[in-house]
Amino acid sequence: xxxxxxxxxxxxxxxxxxxxxxxxxxxxxxxxxxxxxxxxxxxxxxxxxxxxxxxxxxxxxxxxxxxxxxxxxxxxxxxxxxxxxxxxxxxxxxxxxxxxxxxxxxxxxxxxxxxxxxxxxxxxxxxxxxxxxxxxxxxxxxxxxxxxxxxxxxxxxxxxxxxxxxxxxxxxxxxxxxxxxxxxxxxxxxxxxxxxxxxxxxxxxxxxxxxxxxxxxxxxxxxxxxxxxxxxxxxxxxxxxxxxxxxxxxxxxxxxxxxxxxxxxxxxxxxxxxxxxxxxxxxxxxxxxxxxxxxxxxxxxxxxxxxxxxxxxxxxxxxxxxxxxxxxxxxxxxxxxxxxxxxxxxxxxxxxxxxxxxxxxxxxxxxxxxxxxxxxxxxxxxxxxxx
Length: 387
Known about the structure:
Helix content is 26%, strand content 29%. By secondary structure, it is of the alpha/beta class. The strands form three sheets. It has a six-stranded mixed sheet. Strands 1-4-5-3-2 form a five-stranded antiparallel sheet. Strands 10-11-12-14-13 form a five-stranded mixed sheet, covered by helices on one side. It is globular.
C-alpha cells in the first residue's frame, strides 16, 4: 500500500500532500527509476519489492532518501487530535541484473534433470592434496566452421570435449589422496551473456543456436561435472565471471547452488560471491583465481598480497587465470601466475587476427599442503578438423 493510501485511511484532513509513487522501467535498456513515499525508510531490496520488481532481476544503482513531515488532524470539530508523522521519499535508479527468461531457463534445466545428484560418499575424504579442476574458457555456444576458422566448434562439440576433459582429469586425480577438489565455474564457460547473443560488454559474436538450448546444455554439463567431482573428493564450487559470461555463468552457479544446497560433499556456501578475484588456502599455499581480463598479469602478485587475508600465513602463493586461451607461467619474487589453456576451438575472428593453433586443453593442478604445487595434469581436446 502506498503512503497516499495509508494516510487516506487514517486522516480526514491532510495538510501535506505526499508525492506520487511512480515506477518507470525501460525493458529494452534494462534501466529504470523508482519514486516512492513511505512511512519508513526502506532498504534497496525492500524498495524493489515495494515496486513489484524481483530483487534477483534488478539492483538499485543510486538512491536518494529524503524526509519530511506530514500533518493531520482527526476527530469531530472541537475535539480534534493533531499529529505530525515522519515521511520518507525514495528516488532510485535501477539496473537489470538478469532477465527473467534466464530464471525460466533454470527452471527448465531443473525440470529436465529427473533426479537430484546422488549423495554418495566420495572415494576420498581425508587427504593431503587439493585438486583444482581448472577448465577455463570452454565457450559453450561458440560457432566456428573449419574452412573459415581452422576448427569446427559448436554446442555439441563443446559438450563432448568438456565432459571428456572432466572425466580424464578426475580419473587422474582418483589415484591420489585428494582431500578436496576446488572447482571454478565461469571464466567464459559460456560464450554469451544475454538474449542478444553478445558478450558482457556487448561485442557481437558468432553464436550456435537458440540461447535457451545453449544455456540448458551448459547447465546440464556443469551439474554432471560437479556430481562427478563429488564422487572423487569433497568439492567446493567457486564463481569466476568472464568477459563473455559474467551474468550467464552466475546464473549457472545459482543453479549449482540450488541443486547441491543439501549435498553433504559439495560446498556451495561461497559459490555466489561476485568478487572478481577469489582466494583459497590449502595448507601453506594461497591460491588466487580470476578470469584474466581485468588486472594485468604482472600486477596480480601485488594485488594478491593486499587482498588475500591469509597471505602471511602461507609460504607458497599462486594465481590462476585464463582469458588468453594459451598456457603461460609468470614468476616474480617467488609468486607464480599461471595463464591456463582453453578447450575451445578457434572462431573466425581469432583466425583472422592470427591467434590460431593453440594447444586445446584443460588442466588439473594438484597442491600438497606443505609444499604447494605437486603435479599438473592435462586433458587435451581432440581436434575435429584442421587445415
